[in-house]
Amino acid sequence: xxxxxxxxxxxxxxxxxxxxxxxxxxxxxxxxxxxxxxxxxxxxxxxxxxxxxxxxxxxxxxxxxxxxxxxxxxxxxxxxxxxxxxxxxxxxxxxxxxxxxxxxxxxxxxxxxxxxxxxxxxxxxxxxxxxxxxxxxxxxxxxxxxxxxxxxxxxxxxxxxxxxxxxxxxxxxxxxxxxxxxxxxxxxxxxxxxxxxxxxxxxxxxxxxxxxxxxxxxxxxxxxxxxxxxxxxxxxxxxxxxxxxxxxxxxxxxxxxxxxxxxxxxxxxxxxxxxxxxxxxxxxxxxxxxxxxxxxxxxxxxxxxxxxxxxxxxxxxxxxxxxxxxxxxxxxxxxxxxxxxxxxxxxxxxxxxxxxxxxxxxxxxxxxxxxxxxxxxxxxxxxxxxxxxxxxxxxxxxxxxxxxxxxxxxxxxxxxxx
Length: 418
Known about the structure:
The protein is an alpha/beta fold. Helix content is 41%, strand content 16%. Strands 2-1-3-4-5-6 form a six-stranded parallel sheet, sandwiched between helices. Strand 3, helix 6 and strand 4 form a beta-alpha-beta unit. Helix 10 runs parallel beside helix 11. The chain starts with a strand and ends in a 16-residue tail after the last helix.
């Protein structure tokens, strides 16, 4: 049976794991009895191009805006295969982000020219940002927020338009993840999954929180059963949580990790985490025992003034205590930083810089450092500022001089070069 809908990941996009949002959509539609196809053009074209991952993921407007025409010239067979696959389908869904929007819109235009009967459905974070700016194009259908319920309604004949924040109330009602629609061997060994959707916190700089209206999470029992299912099916023991954070509730986290330990699954997992002064040494030990091998921690600043302005809910002293608990449990972690947040002075920047240098033996690695970008257009001033970009360069130089470990490709990687 041919798919009723094809869901396509346009390039350029993340390479490490399958496009998780598309997998959720395909799985949900399958649960509802609707046949859906998934096409990851991103990984297919990346492998054909011969371009290194660093270059593929590097912000470059010329590359992004010219990629579709380059593909038409160099790899027409890829698009011809796609056209042949979708020609008899009724719907095509495209997930758009800032970097792949140009390719996705060009592809949508070409599909509409070739197959006027196909209805195009756009979703993804960039759909939200376009909605804020009143730039949603017709005659396309638009999904703002998560896509399972809207996509189900759209492919069941609901009229075109815009769906806003139609959210699944009970995440445990979703089927266990199934990656059969893609070739898992094309990605890293880590299987991606979510423990939650949304966020209960209110960091002032965060645009991700706008993607959801309600915070929901899986039960620990569901999640452990899902991981056991995935390990058995795909013979993989490594997982990466892609949600905003894993420690939204310490009681939940304790229960989840305890269940993992009791199953004897012997897996490895990593996640994002927030600094929490109530986090206990005992919980750190349970996380380590359950298989946690790495944590991405959003420090963002070590200036208490800036942290208050960001609504982070902790101080630099809390962060240092938190890091000590992770270190004592032998939990590997890395931190992210934001420079040039509105109101950050040179003194605030120096406080952060000195904090990192003075505690370099306690902080294993800098995962990411970027100038503040006003994604939500909240501030009147221009961001990122030139001063923030200068601070990034000073910070990078300091890391090198102090021999502090860092991921070079994630330093200043959110700003297009001028």
